[in-house]
Amino acid sequence: MVLYQYFVKLRATKFGNLFQIHKFFVSLHQKPYCIDMNLDTYLEPINLEEIGFVHDKFSPRLGDKVIAYTQKGNFPEIKKSRLAILGIKEDRNSIGNIGCKDAPDEIRKKLYDLSIPTYDMELIDVGNIEMGQTPKDSYFATIEVVAELLHHNITPIVLGGGQELTYAMYKAYEKQGQIINIFAVDPRFDIGADTEELNSRSYLTKIVMSQPNYLFNFTNVGYQSYFVDKNMVDLMRSLQFDAYRLGLVRSNMEETEPLVRNADMVSIDISSIRQSDAPACGNPTPHGFYGEEICQITRYAGMSDKLSSIGFFELNPRFENNGQTAHLVAHAIWYFIEGFYNRRSDFPYIDKQNYKRYTVPMHNEGLELVFYKSKKSDRWWMEIPCDEQMKQRYARHLLVACSYADYQTALNNDIPERWWRFYNKLVM
To answer: Is residue 302 part of a domain?
Structure first.
């Protein structure tokens, strides 16, 4: 209760003016942070023999299409790639799950052996960030490498390690001066005390407290009520964040698609998957998503033009059952890649000519809601009204991915809840 009261008080003093804070600090960084460095400064090559992969020109697999960093001093050219696998061997701040640092190569063993999702695939494996002298060293290296990949418009597929690495990924966007939305698949809200050291159960607090703040929205799907105090649910709502219970999400998985489509970054905690499907975790739960549902979510993520990074965290080989969990994560990555190469380039951020525009008057509210439907994919977005200054600052986030159900809600003269949440972010 004390923590809840603290955050509410903090919101009243800081978060109530979040976007005013954005205006001030972002004005100091008008030009995005750009870097051009040697990635192998922070990375160690992978050993194909240790992961058990042998190239086969007669029956090619995914690993045969990967441009892998396998020799120190011979780092491959990254600029021709669109996707990059990055392993991070850091687990010292993973609560109750020491050993998850060994996950990256275990996932590679299964991933490299899968079929090729598309022969147009341009995928580089940049190797691993080894455990630094301190966790901060590992986080610093993660920030630098992810920022460099983003700078070259390469989408990192991050293999953790503990989920607090989500914070390091967020900081990489901060270096780019980019305001983002984060989508997390997690049975808990990783909110800790403000004085608590960064760990897998407190990373969200560190993101929210970070100044200047580049977080526009945070969405958690799959939380389980017996792990989450009601005050924490109230706190998420007071921060204008989105939180969806496991049962609600599983009852209509298709409604997860617009939630993922709004995200710039996805963070997946393996403990969000039920133990029977993913036993390799120090914090397992008998309930959670089925393996097929996680793959559905990652395919949605891959298909989103807006999304630019994804991370898989907390897989711990010490609790593995014949490679079952690593195999599942490999499948989820396969679906992400397959979705990535099926993108429709239909995020209506700049050009709205290929969209049908629908205007729905809200008679009770005295305003009009504007919807856009893609002629390519039949996907929907709705426009959030705001003043010109806000439009310039948050243009990428004012077209909110939605579903046909939201449009139907508007036709019934009722403003969709999704619209209200984003609108309140701009007027709070």
So the answer is: yes
Name the phi and psi angles at 131, rounded to 5. Answer: -60, 125
Q: Strand pairing of 355-362 and 367-374?
A: antiparallel
User: Domain span at residue 138?
Assistant: 39-340
Q: Supply the CATH number for residue 77's domain.
A: 3.40.800.10
- List, in order, residues 6 or more apart from 182 with CB less than 8 Å away: 166, 170, 207, 215, 217, 218, 219, 263, 264, 265, 266, 267
Biggest CA–CA distance in the chain, Å, is 67
pTM of the model: 0.91
Beta strands in 270-354 (DSSP E): 309-313
Beta-carbon contacts of residue 136 (< 8 Å; ≥ 6 apart): none
Of 22-36, 37-51, 207-221, 274-288, the one with minimum mean pLDDT is: 22-36
Task: Report the C-alpha gap between 267 and 276 in whole angstroms.
Answer: 21
Residue 171: alpha-carbon gap to chain centroid: 13
Q: Which two tokens stand for residue 401?
A: 């991915």
Q: Which long-range contacts (CB under 8 A, 24 or more apart) does 421-426 make?
A: 421/240, 421/242, 422/217, 422/384, 422/397, 422/398, 423/384, 423/385, 424/240, 425/19, 425/216, 425/217, 425/240, 426/19, 426/384, 426/386, 426/390, 426/394
What is the residue-averaged pLDDT of the chain?
A: 90
